[in-house]
TrEMBL record:
<feature type="domain" description="Rab-GAP TBC">
    <location>
        <begin position="81"/>
        <end position="266"/>
    </location>
</feature>
<dbReference type="InterPro" id="IPR001763">
    <property type="entry name" value="Rhodanese-like_dom"/>
</dbReference>
<dbReference type="GO" id="GO:0005096">
    <property type="term" value="F:GTPase activator activity"/>
</dbReference>
<protein>
    <recommendedName>
        <fullName>TBC domain-containing protein kinase-like protein</fullName>
    </recommendedName>
</protein>
<feature type="domain" description="Rhodanese">
    <location>
        <begin position="403"/>
        <end position="502"/>
    </location>
</feature>
<dbReference type="InterPro" id="IPR000195">
    <property type="entry name" value="Rab-GAP-TBC_dom"/>
</dbReference>
<dbReference type="Pfam" id="PF00566">
    <property type="entry name" value="RabGAP-TBC"/>
</dbReference>
<dbReference type="InterPro" id="IPR035969">
    <property type="entry name" value="Rab-GAP_TBC_sf"/>
</dbReference>
<dbReference type="Pfam" id="PF00581">
    <property type="entry name" value="Rhodanese"/>
</dbReference>
<keyword id="KW-0343">GTPase activation</keyword>
<dbReference type="InterPro" id="IPR036873">
    <property type="entry name" value="Rhodanese-like_dom_sf"/>
</dbReference>
Length: 506
């Protein structure tokens, strides 16, 4: 298979100055003139294609040799796929693992007995023991050393069951390098599971589950209403998902493909994976009652991981960044000594973006749990509605000149308040008179406009009271999708100059 490959294939061109980075394609070969056609095949087929893997491995080896300077290129190639033979090193690059990892690992005392040793020894023999490597005595020893090293290195955290499942993919990939597995685990947890391993992690997990519930309602209100109606809340099934980033519920051969994409997203991407899983099981869930749902998730049913990955990407890209805001997410990363280019708008956490008066702020947990819809920041509203003009857009998506805004703003204040000033393009449906005694929206021109644009993101705007959230909750009950509430109300726009007097005929 490799006989006709030219010698130049061993030294692929990493940069083509005549083309922008985004448009540079995969290398060609004698038997396959454009590797892009192979890249379109299912992942399991690509991983068994010898020639395709040859080109990918050669390319990655050159990029990894130049890490961290070529990290943006590694990230770009990882969006296509990651060859199994170099996956451990690519994951480390995506997690920004650098420095003397061997020295750091060797400096940790992994031999002195600790209070968690007994629990670790109980958990390890139950962790992915179908896997030939991880079921070996050598793996059990490595498992224990890595877990002890992490616990000792993070004295503010405690050992929770599930940490062994998090460690398993890294150990399986870096079996001959405990230091690399430890370094990856140490970089992974702060990004995706910040504060999850505190002794009292209840506020952190409860906030995470509340945001997850909002995301379900945002993308699939019918399913959200059904699950809420039968009392099947995320607390009953989703905690093992998020505490282990799905490593406890899927076999390793699925986890590596899932994490290949997970590592490209920000800390909110796991929430989108959860929604994608529910949507894949949607028909069954809608027909099940509480007991059937409990039985269904007691042993995770078969999930098409490739479809799950693609669905989660769509969900992630169609969700306003601030809609997944969490006050317990990872704080702002310290700036590196050298300025590195951003890999992607979508891989940046909301906390890492510049914060202003228009940004999100912490929301009390009880208030968060009392709402069915996510909140979005004034910044996102300006961005999605292009209220400040396309020139001020932060989004990487190039919009057509004649494209319509992706949002519909529904102002639920009294008509008198609405007439004094509102946001451009908004419609007015006063909350006090919006619904009939039967709970349906009262017909009016504004409701007709709302129904005509149900495929857009519906942003409910009000004062800082509860009317906007209550109106949004009612829209979810009526199965309106993509409903969210403006955080801090319309008053947040008072100093922006974006509030205008609506035309008289609206």
């Amino acid at each position: 298979r490799l006989r006709e490959i030219p010698a130049t294939a061993y030294y692929p061109l990493l940069e083509d100055e005549s083309k922008p980075v985004e448009s540079q394609s995969l290398p060609s070969s004698a038997s396959n003139h454009d590797m892009t056609s192979s890249a379109a095949l299912p992942l399991v087929i690509r991983e068994k294609d010898i020639e395709y893997q040859f080109h990918r491995i050669i390319l990655y080896e050159r990029l990894l040799t130049a890490y961290p300077f070529k990290r943006p290129y590694i990230w770009r190639e990882a969006r296509i796929d990651i060859p199994p033979l170099v996956r451990a090193y690519v994951w480390a690059a995506l997690l920004e693992v650098e420095g003397d990892i061997e020295g750091a690992y060797n400096s940790v005392d992994k031999e002195t007995p600790t209070t968690t040793d007994r629990q670790i020894e109980v958990d390890i023999p139950r962790c992915h023991q179908y896997h030939e490597l991880l079921s070996s005595p050598a793996a059990h020893t490595k498992f224990k050393r890595i877990l002890k090293a992490w616990i000792i290195s993070n004295p503010h955290y405690v050992y929770w069951q599930g940490l062994d499942s998090l460690c398993a993919p890294f150990l399986a990939l870096s079996f001959n390098s405990e230091a690399l597995a430890f370094a990856c685990l140490s970089a992974f947890i702060p990004k995706y599971l910040h504060k999850f391993f505190l002794r009292d992690n209840s506020p952190v997990i409860q906030e995470y589950l509340a945001v997850f519930s909002h995301l379900i309602a945002f993308h699939d209100p019918e399913l959200s209403n059904h699950l809420d109606g039968i009392g099947f809340i995320p607390d009953l099934y989703a905690i093992p998902w998020f505490l282990t980033m799905y490593a406890h519920v899927f076999p390793l051969h699925k986890i590596v493909h899932l994490w290949d994409t997970l590592l490209l997203g920000n800390s909110s991407f796991p929430l989108c994976i959860g929604v994608a899983i529910l949507q894949q099981l949607r028909d069954r869930l809608l027909s099940f009652g509480f007991n059937e749902c409990i039985l269904l998730f007691s042993d995770m049913p078969e999930i098409d991981i490739e479809r799950c990955v693609q669905d989660s990407i769509k969900i992630f890209c169609s969700t306003p960044k601030s809609a997944t805001y969490r006050q317990h997410a990872r704080p702002v990363k310290p700036k590196a000594a050298e300025d590195r280019p951003n890999l992607s708008y979508y891989s940046i956490d909301y906390h890492d973006l510049p914060q202003t008066d228009l940004s999100m702020e912490p929301i009390p947990l009880e208030e968060l749990k009392g709402e069915k819809c996510p909140r979005i920041s004034a910044e996102d509203l300006i961005e999605l509605g292009e209220l400040a003009g396309a020139a001020y857009s932060r989004s990487p998506t190039k919009k057509r000149q004649n494209s319509k805004p992706m949002i519909l703003i529904v102002d639920v204040r009294l008509y008198e308040d609405y007439r004094r000033g509102t946001l451009q393009g908004s419609i007015n449906i006063p909350f006090q008179t919006a619904f009939s005694p039967e709970g349906e929206l009262n017909p009016c021109p504004a409701v007709q406009a709302l129904n005509a644009r149900r495929n857009q993101v519906i942003v409910v705007v009000g004062n800082r009271g509860r009317n906007a959230a209550n109106f949004a909750n009612e829209l979810v009950r009526l199965c309106y999708a993509r409903v969210c509430v403006l955080h801090k109300g319309i008053d947040v726009f008072r100093t922006t100059g974006l509030i205008t007097v609506p035309p008289a005929d609206i």
